[in-house]
């Protein structure tokens, strides 16, 4: 598995355009929702940063610390994922050939890994925030309530959309290694933040306060991420089985241009042309 973690594959990349199509809605609608989510997330980030600069007693200090928090990093990642995914979906809806198909194989593989982080990390953020970080009292300032709901609740709604609506395959098991690697890199960033800025992004990472429980939190979040990966994998498999095998809803496609991938317009894609077990 360690070798495969750094291999990009040699098989045909996404022959039926699962990353750009849905079993439920057309490519144009999928593009619309992804673009809308990206616009909302990136706009929310800009508003939050500006609000902190104007209203926080430390002015822009909180905004400058934005990239020290896993919540913020994953929210930025979610926004840019939907931006990239909407671009790929738009080009597919418009021409029948997504921009992603023109990318070199390493970037295609990274997009697949990116998708996996999008359907795992938002749920980690939501669970950790509401179970461990939330004080239990609702925010007295309306803006604080909106910003926290946007980053710690709606993020999981966006992730759930990507689990349910597109035709994506279950992520490969090797992506678990990448999930843990990213968490390890963030852990290093958290302690680098303490070394350079004098604070821990999350109090449960402070060994002076939590002592040995720091390791419990670290390994607990890592194991929890793998559990969420397993749940996400199962939900994607179930969605694919129910919609494609049981209901026969193999997807809503754009028309293929003449000669694309060697197919004529209207021909079934190679992935979808095999025998069906219903």
Give the structure's gist in a few sentences.
This protein is an all-alpha fold and 278 residues long. The protein is built from ten helices and no strands. The C terminus is likely disordered.
Question: Any idea what the radius of gyration is?
Answer: 21 Å
| Count, helices | 10
Number of strands: 0
Output the helix-strand order: HHHHHHHHHH
* Global shape: globular
Task: Give the domain tally.
Answer: 1
For this entry, what is the oligomeric state of its chains?
single chain
Unreliable sequence segments: 261-270, 274-278
Protein name: FAR-17a/AIG1-like protein
Region (Disordered): 256-278
Keywords: Membrane, Transmembrane, Transmembrane helix
Transmembrane segments: 28-51, 72-93, 113-131, 176-194, 214-238
Provide a descriptive summary of the structure in words.
The protein has 278 residues and is mostly helical. It has one domain. The chain is built from ten helices and no strands. It has helices spanning 27-55, 61-64, 70-95, 105-118, 121-133, 142-152, 154-164, 175-197, 207-210, 213-246. The longest helix has 34 residues, at 213-246. Residues 261-270 and 274-278 have low confidence and may be disordered.
């Amino acid at each position: 598995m360690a070798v495969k973690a750094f291999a990009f594959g040699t098989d045909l990349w996404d022959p039926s355009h699962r990353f750009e199509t849905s079993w439920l809605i057309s490519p144009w609608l999928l593009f619309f929702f992804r673009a809308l989510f990206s616009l909302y997330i990136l706009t929310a980030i800009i508003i939050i940063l500006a609000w902190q600069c104007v209203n926080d007693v430390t002015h822009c200090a909180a905004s400058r610390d934005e990239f020290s928090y896993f919540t913020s990093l994953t929210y930025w990642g979610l926004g840019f994922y939907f931006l990239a995914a909407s671009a790929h979906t738009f080009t597919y809806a418009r021409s029948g050939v997504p921009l992603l198909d023109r990318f070199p194989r390493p970037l295609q593989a990274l997009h697949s890994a990116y998708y996996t982080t999008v359907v795992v990390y938002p749920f980690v953020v939501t669970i950790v925030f509401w179970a461990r970080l939330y004080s239990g009292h609702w925010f007295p300032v309306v803006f604080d309530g909106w910003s926290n709901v946007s980053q710690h609740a709606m993020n999981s709604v966006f992730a759930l959309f990507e689990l349910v609506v597109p035709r994506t395959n279950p992520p490969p098991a090797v992506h678990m290694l990448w999930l843990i690697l990213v968490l390890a890199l963030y852990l290093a960033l958290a302690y680098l933040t303490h070394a350079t800025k004098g604070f821990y992004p999350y109090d449960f990472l402070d060994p002076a306060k939590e002592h040995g429980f720091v390791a419990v939190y670290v390994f607990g979040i890592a194991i929890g991420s793998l559990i969420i990966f397993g749940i996400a994998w199962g939900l994607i498999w179930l969605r694919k089985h129910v919609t494609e095998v049981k209901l026969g809803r193999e997807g809503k496609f754009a028309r293929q241009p003449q000669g694309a991938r060697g197919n004529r317009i209207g021909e079934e894609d190679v992935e979808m042309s095999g025998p069906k077990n219903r």
